[in-house]
Design goal:
This protein has about 140 residues and is of the alpha+beta class. The protein is built from 5 helices and 5 strands; from the N terminus they run ααββαββαβα.
């Protein structure tokens, strides 16, 4: 025979089984992402457009630094306006928009995509300083 405690436990389990899909399927109420920095609108448009590997050149008083990024970084930037992920041969670098020096660097940055005249030269520069055998050229393969 069922006693009250067993019946209450069975009802609680049944209620959980019925209600669980509703809680799992309910969208998580997240805060809206911050608006894109208007000062970086030109860089952001160039960074998030296109597909495949692209280069970013940041010039400073010491010369220029060549970074590269691809589709995963591009998609992340389309979803989140707070930063941009760029790569040197051996490590990732996150440029955070709220960081003054990062923002200043991005304001001077130039995005170069496949097909642009300086792309092949940047590809050579990027690979010249790279000792990582896993990093390959971003130039499209000749068919």
């Amino acid at each position: 025979m069922l006693d009250v405690k067993k019946l209450a436990l069975m009802l609680a389990c049944a209620l959980f089984l019925v209600a669980a899909p509703v809680f799992v399927a309910a969208p998580v109420m997240a805060a809206d992402p911050p608006a894109a920095d208007p000062d970086l609108a030109q860089f952001r448009q160039a960074y998030t457009a296109g597909s495949g590997l692209s280069y970013v050149v940041i010039k400073n008083d010491k010369g220029e630094k060549v970074y590269r990024y691809g589709d995963a970084s591009r998609q992340a930037a389309q979803k989140d306006t707070r930063g941009y992920m760029l790569f040197t041969c051996n490590s990732p670098h996150v440029f955070v928009v709220q960081n003054g020096s990062d923002k200043a660097a991005l304001l001077k940055a130039k995005v170069v995509k496949v097909g642009e005249p300086e792309f092949a030269d940047l590809d050579r520069k990027y690979l010249a300083g790279c000792k990582n055998p896993l990093v390959k050229s971003a130039l499209p393969k000749a068919k």
